[in-house]
Structure formats: structure tokens, C-alpha cells
Design brief:
This protein is mostly helical and about 400 residues long. About 85% of the residues lie in helices and about 0% in strands.
């Protein structure tokens, strides 16, 4: 990666930190928001469901409509709408306006993320796309490292709305930074939604998207309710929960970077399956040791490391399945990711309401295990087909 392009990719990663914070922060302050707007924790959790559903349904449509638009301009427009969404959260009161804010933030975030991923992959040299994508994922991870725990502290001392106000102001600065630094990048030929859906006829793509769904649903079931889980089940204090979220974020950053490195060095299958198996095992251990604060710190870091190591790996896996339609396939994968976030938050809300907070990590572990098994079976079948084809070609040559 050339120096001139490397810093531009890092700039996109820094801005990804902002949009990542706006998405993830709700999980860190869920109990504060619920108390302030007068709803239950499980009802507040559905703010994550609404965000994810709007993101999932809206992103493919908006990416198709804006396919021909020059990429830098699309980054700027999406950030402009993002500023408006944060403004609504700050200025307008009530649960209904907060839902509206989450929808606007979801749509703008979806367009920015997919566009930034495609721009970063084009800025990176051949063979280094995994590292470039991992750098952008690092931006999201950093929102967990700094944004979510810092948001928790701000919400404890001041008003949680200050968080969204600050994000909005910083997004205005990001618009200026992109205007003067990111080069113009041509859009792609518009792909109708009908043709986008045609990609879903490819069994390999369906299986890969299924892996994304179960992996992220398992993560979301637990992470959506992590703050009330740590406060009530583990019995951590307010300050210790902030520290735990900080530790979680550090581990997620390490996981995403090592996931990208491992993908480039050892391949997709080993990195993806290994990370997901460790993810599932860690969630089981969290269930078994939920009442021990000291152990929980270490397990939270192991969970974050394993969960986020799969992010860049799965992105590369998806791109490899349809390199000629990278923007569309990334959009579909991002939509599936958000469907999974919505499903996880929704299922978690039902579990919290009907059973207990302590049950969410068991369900999360089962879902991630399904993802790992599906990925292993898929890679195994692909390897068998490839070997059979090589044998047939060898016989034909002989």
C-alpha cells in the first residue's frame, strides 16, 4: 500500500469510527436511554432492531439508485444526512423521534460504509485488500474501544444526548476532510434490484450470507444487552462496566487487525472457521462464569477478539465470490449483517422479557456454532469440487 493511499484509508477508518459509534453506542447506554424516555430495557433494545432493519432494507436500494454517482460525492452526501440524523436525536424529544433518528442514521451509515469499503479496496494495491478492509473495520472497532465506553461515562455524568451532538459536529469536520483528501472515484454501472437479487441464485453466495447471519445474530443477542448483563448478572459497578467496555474494545481492535493479517497470510477458511469456533466457545464460558467479575474481564476480551477477527475475513470471502460486482455483494452482505443484528436484538429482547438476561449468551453461542459449521461445510465442499475438477483436467491432459 503506497504511503499516499495508506493515510487516505486510515482517514476513512477514522470517519468509520464516528458512524460506528452512532450505531453501537445504544448498546452501551441502553439502560440510560430507557430510563430517560420511560420505556423498558427490552423496548429500548428495539432501537437497535429498527436501526438494523432500516439499514438492511435501505442500503441495497440506495446503493442501486446511487450506483453511477461519483464515490467521493456519495460519501459527502451520506455524511450530510448523517449529521441531520444526529441532530434529530439531540433536538426532538420522545421515543418516536428517536426511532426516526435511528432510521435516518441507519440509511446514511449504510451508504457510507459500503461506499467507504469499495473506495478503500480500490485505493489498496492487489493482494492487500484484506488489510485495507481490516483497517476500515478497525474504525468500527475503535468506536467500541473509545466511543462506547466514553459514551457510557458521558451518559453517567451528563446527558446521553450530548453524545449524538458531539458526533454530529465531528461529522461536519469529516465532510471537510473528505472534500480535500479523497480522490474522485467513478461510480459503477447501475445494477437493478432484480439483478442484485439474481446474485442470490448462486448457492455459494447464499451459504456465505447464511454464515454472516448466524455469526452476527449470535454476537448481537449478547452484545445488545451487555451493559445490563454486566450490571445485574455479573454485579459490576458503573465504573467497572465502563472499564469492561474499554477492554472489550481494545480486544476487538486487535482481533480485526489480526483477522485481516491472517486472511492475507493463511487464507479465508482457516481464519474464519477458527475465529468463529473460538467465538462460540467464549460465549459458553461467559454463560458458565457470569457471576465472576475478574474472569468476565478476560472473557469479554477473548469474545471481542474472536468475534471481530471474522469481520475482514468474511468481507474478503464475500468479495471473492463476486469480484465483478463487489459493491453489490458487499451491500447484500451488509444488509444480511444488519438483518442479523435486528434478529439478535429482537430475540434478545424476547429472552430478557420472558426468561432472563443470563440466557442470552447461551443462545448467542448456539448461533455462532451454526455459522462455524456452515462455513466449514461450505469450504469443504468447495475444496472437494476443486480437487475433482483438477483430477478431471489431469486425466484429460494425460
Amino acid at each position: 500500500m503506497t504511503v499516499s493511499n495508506a493515510w487516505k484509508i486510515y482517514l476513512l477508518a477514522i470517519i468509520s469510527f464516528l458512524v460506528g459509534t452512532s450505531e453501537f453506542i445504544i448498546a452501551g447506554i441502553l439502560d440510560k436511554v430507557a430510563e430517560d424516555i420511560g420505556v423498558t430495557v427490552s423496548a429500548a433494545g428495539q432501537l437497535i432492531t429498527v436501526f438494523s432493519l432500516a439499514y438492511a432494507f435501505g442500503t441495497p436500494f440506495l446503493m442501486a439508485v446511487t450506483a453511477r454517482m461519483e464515490r467521493r460525492k456519495l460519501l459527502l452526501y451520506s455524511l450530510g444526512v448523517f449529521v441531520i440524523g444526529n441532530g434529530i436525536a439531540v433536538v426532538l424529544p420522545g421515543f418516536e423521534f428517536l426511532i426516526g433518528s435511528r432510521i435516518i442514521l441507519a440509511l446514511s451509515t449504510g451508504v457510507f460504509v459500503v461506499t467507504a469499503l469499495t473506495v478503500a479496496s480500490k485505493l489498496a494495491p492487489a493482494g492487500k485488500q484484506g488489510g485495507a478492509i481490516a483497517t476500515l473495520v478497525m474504525g468500527f472497532s475503535t468506536s467500541l474501544i473509545i466511543g462506547v465506553p466514553l459514551g457510557r461515562v458521558i451518559a453517567s455524568v451528563y446527558d446521553w444526548k450530548m453524545i449524538f451532538g458531539g458526533i454530529g459536529v465531528l461529522a461536519l469536520l469529516a465532510i471537510l476532510a473528505i472534500s480535500f483528501s479523497i480522490p474522485r472515484t467513478d461510480g459503477e454501472e447501475p445494477v437493478p434490484l432484480r439483478k442484485q437479487m439474481a446474485l442470490l441464485k448462486d448457492k455459494k453466495i447464499i451459504v456465505a450470507l447464511t454464515v454472516t447471519f448466524f455469526w452476527i445474530a449470535g454476537y448481537s443477542v449478547t452484545y445488545t444487552y451487555i451493559s445490563p448483563f454486566l450490571l445485574t448478572v455479573t454485579g459490576m459497578s458503573e465504573s467497572v462496566v465502563s472499564a469492561a467496555l474499554f477492554a472489550f474494545g481494545i480486544a476487538s481492535l486487535i482481533g480485526s487487525k489480526l483477522g485481516g493479517y491472517s486472511t492475507d497470510k493463511w487464507g479465508v477458511s482457516r481464519t474464519l472457521i477458527g475465529g468463529m469456533l473460538l467465538h462460540a466457545v467464549t460465549l459458553v464460558l461467559i454463560s458458565l462464569t457470569a457471576q465472576y467479575s475478574a474472569v468476565m474481564f478476560a472473557l469479554l476480551m477473548l469474545w471481542a477478539f474472536s468475534a471481530w477477527s471474522s469481520g475482514p475475513t468474511q468481507q474478503v470471502n464475500i468479495i471473492n465470490l463476486a469480484p465483478e460486482a463487489s459493491g453489490i455483494i458487499l451491500s447484500l452482505n451488509t444488509s444480511m449483517l444488519q438483518f442479523a443484528m435486528a434478529a439478535g436484538a429482537g430475540i434478545g429482547g424476547i429472552v430478557v422479557g420472558q426468561a432472563s438476561l443470563a440466557s442470552v449468551s447461551w443462545i448467542g453461542a448456539a448461533s455462532v456454532a451454526i455459522a462455524a459449521g456452515t462455513a466449514a461445510a461450505s469450504f469443504g465442499m468447495s475444496r472437494s469440487r476443486r480437487m475433482a475438477k483438477e483430477r478431471a483436467l489431469h486425466k484429460a491432459g494425460a
